[in-house]
Amino acid sequence: MCTGCVQKQYPDRGHTCLENGSYLMNFLGCANCHQRDFVLISDRTMVNEDEDEDEEEIVTYLHMCKNCDHVIARQEYTFTVVDDYQEYTMLCMLCGKAEDSISVLPDDPRQTAPLF
Fold it and tell me: Does Acetylation show up as a keyword for this record (predicted)?
């Protein structure tokens, strides 16, 4: 992947996990052709690790320069179900790194205030 195309490598995105798209605020421009244009998504693959339960899904794709097909970064997004929580992760030199966890229950047990 290309460190010359991004302002910051793997910026911390907190809980923002994206299954597709590009974080253009971090895109300096193509280090190969020196153009700052749209970023294409290429070679997108989706894999379900557990076909019966749909408990893990991995999406990968490449961010590429629209003008010269230079590979800017590779993105990996994962979705898993662990106990009563949906877990999301994202790792990409352009879009950053992030993790999130959401309860599948109507009321998240982690969000309840203690009574005492």
Answer: no
pLDDT tens for each residue of 48-104: 865 555 578 999 999 999 999 999 999 999 999 888 888 999 999 999 999 998 887
CATH number at residue 100: 2.60.40.4240
The band of 19, judged by pLDDT with boundaries at 50, 70 and 90, is: confident
Paired tokens of 7: 């302002």
Q: Nearest 5°: phi and psi at 25?
A: -65, -25
The reply to whether 114 falls in a domain is: no
Enter the tokens of residue 43.
């070679």
Residue span of the structural domain in which 80 resides: 3-105
Helices (H) and strands (E) in the chain, counts: 0, 5
Residue 29 located in a structural domain: yes
- Asked if residue 87 belongs to a domain, the reply is yes
Whether residue 24 is contained in a domain is answered as yes
